[in-house]
Design a protein that fits this description.
This protein is an alpha/beta fold. The chain has eleven helices and ten strands.
Length: 282
Amino acid sequence: MISRDDVESLDPIEKMYFKRILSFIKNTLKIDVTQYKESYIIRRIRVRMKATKCQSFKEYYEYLKTHKEEHEELANTLTVNVTEFWRDITVYKEIMKIIDNWVADRSIRKLRIWSAGCSSGEEPYGVAIILNEAIEKHKRKLLLASIIGTDIDKEVLNKARIGIYHIKQLKNLPPHIIEKYFIKLNEEEYQIKQIIKKYVKFQLHDLIKDPPLKNMDMILCRNVIIYFDKKIQEEIFLKFYEALNPGGFLVLGKTEILHGEAKKLFKTYNARERIYQKPKEE
């Protein structure tokens, strides 16, 4: 099996079958991967090749045609996000400070937060926990706070709405937070409580094709845009700028940085944690 992750390294036959797999993904699985980096697509396909013991793209293409159960496996692998609560705790400490300052400010009556590419809900629920802690601390029960989690995967959004997680996904949360906000279902599974669910709504949304949500105070889009090519990334950054209220924050993943026109538009709030701010109106 070829190990390099670029199309040009493939021999002509493998290149032809790679393109056939791409066509299959688009036409049969109905997933548009044209905006993804080819190296990412190759890596994700190879995950399934290894699982099915296929040694070449040709072999895997033939496997796809004869094994319908593999269609869903490939689709899930292409759109997979490894998620856990409060992943990268240093970022979440900064988010805690921002949210605490907002909630403490009694002139603020409403907060809207967007978790873009939210996968199975750990990020929006994790932010909702921070929000609820701040609301209790500052006695702001009348504050209108909402979080919208969006993704392109219907199945993963349904999973998010149910809100059941493996204990390993809770490893960053302090024990008292787990006890307060989760119902223990068994030794391995926990379900998020309604006190947190009430803040979060989930909806289907394509970052590339759909217009941005509006009037947001914070957007979290962590470890999502890295899979898109540079031109698409720039377009998404501009959509996020449009979506944010003046003074609002954009939180990216640790390996993601602003570029293009958005780099000039946003202020850097915390370079290390990849937090940017839309300038406040003069």
